[in-house]
């Protein structure tokens, strides 16, 4: 399983990296900006991308649209991981193409269940 996290806060990256290592024994790839993720997404065959909303320069919603529309990665599942609880932002995230929205702080049980559902189904999962 190959997973990418786009997050500019190192502590948040460390938490998710620990979750991924403990749950699945996998390495979590990470970058700090949306722009840095684009070449990596084209070069690597990721199974899933975790995307923060509040990123420097290009925000996570713009990044999701870019990945889906410009990079033509419509089949690449994206899970938003964000502290932003604004209903409009959440709705925009789903409209942009995310498959799930996990609120920070991230609960490891929810993280595991949502990740596995997204990887194993085509369903859109409500906010957790």
UniProtKB/TrEMBL annotation:
Pfam families: Response_reg (PF00072)
Swiss-Prot/TrEMBL keywords: Phosphoprotein
Database matches in SUPFAM superfamilies: CheY-like
Domain of life where this protein originates: Bacteria
Modification sites for 4-aspartylphosphate: 52
Record GO biological process: phosphorelay signal transduction system
Keyword Phosphoprotein attributed: yes
Response regulatory domain: residues covered: 2-119
PANTHER family hit by this protein: RESPONSE REGULATORY DOMAIN-CONTAINING PROTEIN, STRESS RESPONSE REGULATOR PROTEIN 1
Listed name of the protein: Response regulatory domain-containing protein
Species this protein is from: Kiloniella spongiae
């Amino acid at each position: 399983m190959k997973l990418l996290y786009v997050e500019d806060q190192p502590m948040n990256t460390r938490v998710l990296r620990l979750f991924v290592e403990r749950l699945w024994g996998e390495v979590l790839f990470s970058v700090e900006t949306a722009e840095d993720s684009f070449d990596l997404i084209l070069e690597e065959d990721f199974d899933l991308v975790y995307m923060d909303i509040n990123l420097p320069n290009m925000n996570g919603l713009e990044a999701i649209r870019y990945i889906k529309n410009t990079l033509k990665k419509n089949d690449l599942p994206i899970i938003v991981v964000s502290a932003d609880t604004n209903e409009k932002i959440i709705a925009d995230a789903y409209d942009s193409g995310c498959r799930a929205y996990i609120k920070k702080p991230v609960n490891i049980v929810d993280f595991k269940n949502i990740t596995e559902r997204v990887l194993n189904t085509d369903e859109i999962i409500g906010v957790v």
